[in-house]
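Quick illustration, no need to memorize.
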Amino acid sequence: MNLIDEIRIPILGNHVTIVSTRRRLRPKERKESVDKCPFCPGNEELTPPATLALVRIGNRFEFCRESRSGECSPWIVRIIPNKYPALDPNPPTPTARNALKARGFHEVVVESCKHVHDPHELSDEEYALSLYTTMTRMRDLLSIEWIKYVALIKNRGLGAGASIRHSHSQIFASPYVPPRVAEEVKQLIDLGTCPLCSYVEDEYLRNRYLVYESKSFALLVNDAPRASYEVLIVPKKHESRPSPNLEILRELAHVMRIVTKFFVEVLRTESYNMWFHVAPKGVEDFHWHIEAMPRLGIWGGYELSSDVYIVEVSPEEVAEKMRSFVSSLEREAVDSSEPL
C-alpha cells in the first residue's frame, strides 16, 4: 500500500479532501471487550507519549507532558497523538498535482482512566475535567502560527467512525478553516444578527424545540435536521470559544451526558457523532456550539447529491420525547438524591 497523506481541493464543489491511506491500518474493536485496551492505565506503551495529561497531586490537579509513554502516571485524562493520523506536523511531499501537504495535528483525547464507553457513565465532575484538559490543548494548538482552526469531534461506534470503545474524542488542528465553519462565519456576517442567539431567546422556538436548559446552556432540537434526533447544545452567552471555567464546564458536561444517555439508552443506538463548532483563528464574532446526531440510518443518493435531507421523525416529536426523558431523569435524581 502506498502511504499518501495530502490535502486536495476539488475542481468542483466546496469541500476539502484529506487523502490518508494509513487510516486503513487502524484497529477496529468488534467485541464488547478486548484483552488489552490501548487507552486503559497500564497500557500506555501501546500509544505515543502524551502531548498533555491531567494528573492529581495531593488535592490539586496539574498538567503533565510526556517524553516517554507512561511518564505521567497515574493520570486522569490523557491526550496523545493519533497513531494513524489524517494530519501530521511533518507530512510527506504530495504526490498529486495541486495537492497540499496534510500538515496539522490529529490527537486523541482519552476522556477517562476508567474503561467506559460513554460520557454519561462518568460524573459531571469527571467529564468536566476531560473537557478542561481538552480546551487547554486546543488553545495550545491554536497558538501555533500556521494553524487556522482546531476541531473537536466525538465518534461512538463503528457506524460513526470509531475504532475503539473506550470513551474518547479527537482533535484536528488544520492550516485551513473547514468549509462548513467558514460558511457559518459568513452567514453571521451576512445576516448581521446571530441565529443561535435567536434560537435561545425566541419564545416560539423555545416552546417548540427547547429540551433542557441550565444557567449557561440550552439543549435544543435542530428545527431543520439532517438526520432524525439531531440536537444542538448552545451557550446562552454569545461567545466565540468555550470558556475554560471549570464550573461552566461542569454544566456543559451535564448537558452533554444527557444527550449521550438519550442516544444510547432510549434510541438504543450503537453509534453517534458529536462535534464542536468554534471560531477560527482571528474571528471573534461567532457563537460556538455543539451539534450531535445518532446514526440511525444512512444518507441516500438524494441527500448526497443535493445536500437536501429527508427525516422520518419531526423535530417537534423529538423535542417531546426528549423532554419526557429529561423529566424521568429528574425524578430519578430526586428519588436517589443524586445528580442526573
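The chain has one domain: 38-83+104-336.
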